[in-house]
Amino acid sequence: MVASRRVLAEAEATNARLGHENLGFLSESHGFVPRQRPLLELPMSHKAWDDVAAQLPELVRTLTLRPALSAMPVIGAGTDALPDRDLLRASVILSILAYACHHVETEPPVAMPQSVTVPWGEVSARLRRPAPHLSFTDMNLYNWRFTNGDEAAAIDVENLSLAVAIVGNEDERRFQLVPVEAVAALAPTVGAIVRAQEAVADDDARGLGHELTAIADALHEVAAVTFAKVNPNRYSPTYVDPVVWGKTVAPFATPFDPAVPGPSGTAIPSFTLLDVFFGRTYETKIGHETDRARSWYPPHWQAFLDAVDSAEPSVPEYVGRRGDRVLRGLFQEGAAPSEGLGYA
User: Fold this and answer.
1) What is the pLDDT of residue 341?
2) Which of 24, 43, 159, 196 shows a CA-CA span of 20 to 30 A to 271?
3) For the whole prediction, is pTM greater than 0.85?
């Protein structure tokens, strides 16, 4: 069994046994998207967090967020206070509240309210994070709901709204949910990459070619369809105003601690997986930020990426050794379009 298959199988079994996905969303069927739909409310004991989260756009608009957080009670999030299944929802709310509190006014607060910092630290520790921060999981992957409550709907921007919005405009909704659609659209690449490495281990060039084709098809779909849903052309039906986005949405995702990574495109696990699979190395500032984000990933993601990275021989090495022009062409077909898939 290749290492990537073993890690994938163990992650699926562990998440099923635990009944939650706190160690990282990872499955052959859903890729890096949660198999269980994101929770939309916490237990009654923590309803105060849900209430403030629901009011967040208004609190930001009226600059009353900081007083509201100061008035909010300090509610514990230890193992005796909050079940494991609620940690991801709690992390979404607390992480967004912390960043919004910092950025809502022109000057940062003298001190962050303990109603946020105390439980945020507890939740982050229970999720095995190096430190509290707003992750890609918090901002995007676990921060959505189906607009019409249709559980059978596709994970497309048109069918989704944010579970916790900061400013509540269309620019925020579209920009934050396009990455969710992209990760969902790239879910088939997780299984395809594992099967590609299995084909290499079996010296099955034809099987490898089949998986490379599947990867290329998924990449072309994301590049041509999904990313077109954020369009700076004001005459496009998918228009996102760069100025409105830059003034209202972008600042709230900026880390206020330079020691932690942000939830930008450098933190999207699907892109990091493709870079590892195709053997790319990072020499740019953005590339180094991608490496840093990877080191903060949840345990299942880190283990899976390490397993894909450890394959001997790697897919690029195998393709190079065989000298098969068709196989090389299929490899380049997958590698080339993904070079332009940055989503900062």
Assistant:
1) 41
2) 159
3) yes
